[in-house]
Amino acid sequence: MSIKYDHVKSHGNPRNIAYCHEIPNGAKLSILWLSGYCSVMNSTKASAISEWAQKESIEMIRFDYSGLGKSEGEFATANLSQWLDEALLIYQKIQHRPTIIIGSSMGAWLALRLTETLQRSHQTQPKALLLLAPAVDFTHEILLKKLPKDLLGQLENQGVIAIPSQYDEEPLKFYQQFIQDAQQHRLLNHPSIITTPITIIHGEQDHDIPIMLGIKVAAHFKNTQLFTINDGEHRLSRAQDLQFILNTLKNLIS
Q1: Which helix (H) or strand (E) segment is 104 a member of?
Q2: Cα angle vertex 205, ends 202, 210, to 5°?
Q3: pLDDT band at residue 114 using 50, 70 and 90 as cut-offs
Q4: What is the DSSP string of 34-85?
Q5: What is the pLDDT of residue 48?
Q6: What's the pLDDT tens digit per position in 11-23?
Q7: Cα-to-chain-centroid distance, residue 214
Q8: Residue 224, SS3?
Q9: Burial 215-249, CB ≥16 within 10 A → b, else e
Q10: Is the distance from CB of 223 to CB of 195 less than 8 angstroms?
Q11: Which CATH number fits domain 4-137+194-253: 3.30.720.200, 3.40.47.10, 3.40.50.1820, 3.30.1490.100?
């Protein structure tokens, strides 16, 4: 994977963003991959889609959010506003090709916000969105609603909490500034203007982002179809999950 860097300055925070841009000969379609919270561009799903895209002569671009992976910045001060600016920068590197944006978990929220931003500014919109276990508005729809009082107090007093992860040894950290910034990016508390076709894949055994949120997202946005995997969990990274994602992607392209 060949890593490149580009400079972005937003919200008073200059930083270099690491990205991977693969353009096979004869590419007529592009994929922009947006990772989940604390995830990076060489994750299992992103790598599997990249390998498939190269075989199918499809352009693909992916990047590490600031504060994560090979990108500069402090995770403690990063937020959706910064990551949206970075997503817009990376999206603009795709030249004159229909684009499918694939957003995983929090990346699905970012994909929707990016599409909304493009539509409001009359820029070229994606051909379609593919949202995997979409964690739309998860800060307010899930996190704040589930936190016990002691952790809510810690978040307010110390500005950060750490929650054990079933996938990693290190706990997930959530910062008060991230949650406060996320308020302005919420989508489910007002009507949507997005007209891009949306496809959702959600595991019915997802305990991190429950299937009910996926159903709520599907009902909120126009021109949306929802597929569920009855034994699928949040990461959707098993061989059968990856194959389901690729089959869905093939159908979107055709």
Answers
A1: strand 99-104
A2: 65
A3: very high
A4: E--TT--TTSHHHHHHHHHHHHTT-EEEEEPPTTSTTS-S-GGG--HHHHHH
A5: 97
A6: 778 999 999 999 9
A7: 14
A8: strand
A9: eebbebbeebebebbeebbbbbbeeebbebbbebb
A10: yes
A11: 3.40.50.1820
In whole angstroms, give the CA distance from residue 77 to residue 177: 7
pLDDT band for position 167 (cuts 50, 70, 90): confident
Torsion of CA 16, 20, 23, 24, to 10 degrees: 160
Query: Where do the structural domains in the chain lie, given as residue ranges?
Result: 4-137+194-253
CA neighbor of 109 nearest in space, from 236, 220, 240, 18 = 220
Q: How far apart are the first and last CA of the chain?
A: 27
**pLDDT at residue 97 greater than cutoff 80:** yes
Residue 254 has pLDDT above 90, yes or no: no
Determine the 3-state secondary structure of 114 from DSSP: helix
* Mean pLDDT of the region 179-192: 98
Q: What is the pTM of this model?
A: 0.96
Share of residues in the chain with pLDDT > 70 (%): 100
- Chain centre distance of CA 196: 16
